[in-house]
Amino acid sequence: MGFGVWAPQPPPQASHPNLEVTDTSFDGVRVRVYKPQGQEPGSKMAGLMWFHGGGWVIGSVDGYDALVGRIANQTGAVVVSVE
C-alpha cells in the first residue's frame, strides 16, 4: 500500500570551483563555510550567516549547498551555512 518510512536523500554536494568549502562545527553545531578564493590573506571580507528553513524538522546544509554556493560566489562574501 506504500506504507513505510520515507527518508529523503540529500542532493550531492555541488561543485564550487571558485570557493574554498569547509565542513566543521561551531560549539557542536554543524556548519559549512564557503569562502571565495583569490582574497589576500588577512584581508577583511563581508560575512553572511545562512539559516535554512524547515522548523528543525526538514532541510540541511546539504540541501542548500548549491544555493549558498551561488550566494557566496555572487556576493564575494564568506557564507556560513548552519545546520
Give a structural overview.
This protein is 13% helix and 31% strand. It is of the alpha+beta class. The N and C termini lie far apart (34 Å). It has a four-stranded mixed β-sheet.
Could you write a compact summary of the structure shown?
This protein is α+β, with helices and mostly antiparallel strands and about 80 residues long.
SSE inventory with pairings:
Layout (H helix, E strand, L loop, with lengths): L18 E8 L2 E8 L10 E5 L13 H11 L2 E5 L1
Parallel strand pairs: 3-4
Antiparallel strand pairs: 1-2, 2-4
Which tags fit this structure?
83 residues; alpha+beta; 4-stranded mixed β-sheet; globular
Overall helicity: 10-25%
Note the gap between the termini.
34 Å
Largest sheet: 4 strands, mixed
| Helical/strand content category | alpha+beta
- Low-confidence residue ranges: none
Helices, by number, come to 1
Q: Give the C-alpha Rg.
A: 15 Å
What average pLDDT do the residues reach? 85
Strand/helix succession: EEEHE
Task: Count the E strands.
Answer: 4
- Which overall shape is indicated by the principal axes computed on the Cα atoms? globular
Q: Widest sheet: strand order?
A: 1-2-4-3
Strand content: 25-35%
